[in-house]
Amino acid sequence: MEVAEPSSPTEEEEEEEEEEQSVEPRPRTRSNPEGEDRALGAQTSVGSRSEGEGEAASADDGTPNALGAGPKPWQVPPPAPEVQVRTPRVNCPEKVIICLDLSEEMSLPKLESFNGSKTNALNVSQKMIEMFVRTKHKIDKSHEFALVVVNDDTAWLSGLTSDPRELCSCLYDLETASCSNFNMEGLFSLIQQKTELPVTENVQTIPPPYVVRTILVYS
User: Fold this and answer.
1) E strands within the chain?
2) How many other CB atoms are there within 10 angstroms of residue 190's CB atom?
3) Is the pTM of this model over 0.70?
4) Which of 23, 113, 142, 185 could form a disulfide with 93 if both were Cys (CB 3.0 to 4.6 A apart)?
5) How big is the chain by its Cα radius of gyration, in Å?
6) pLDDT (tens digit, 9 = 90+) per residue, 174-203?
């Protein structure tokens, strides 16, 4: 009589039993009321993170960038052009030539004073010139001033003088007239005839005896 021996479990059955044991839910506790297996979730997240890092590493180790995609080499900017300064860097006596426009537009009452009364550009310019000349004279008594009026033609009214009263005496006795156009070349030619520009070799190291400045006040 043959007795059947109990068959030993196969390897597949052993693996299934191990999986069932691993899938068994964890007991519910206060810290884990849902009975979740946190260790398994942590392992899964760590694995996914390492996979992402591996992808980034593989992307960095990939083929080099295409030509021209890299940073351009730094270029040295061209040197700035040298600026030649023709005026001294120290205070010098000045010959100031004030040119005042006497066109008809200067006498039109377009401006309003502080008290509400109407005034024109000529009155404002006359007061401004007088204030400028007197203030400039207080700073340096050696400054000289001249007054030139501009209309259809140019007229040299007051020669170069260091006395502000002499210039202001002929500043307010002026009348405007209609003027269609004006050529600046005539003004510059008159200034060259009445004044002489100082000649110096190096104005930066040796200041000239004086400088000539021209101020044009026009409407």
Assistant:
1) 94-101, 111-112, 118-119, 144-150, 154-161, 211-217
2) 18
3) no
4) 142
5) 48
6) 989 888 788 888 899 999 999 988 887 776
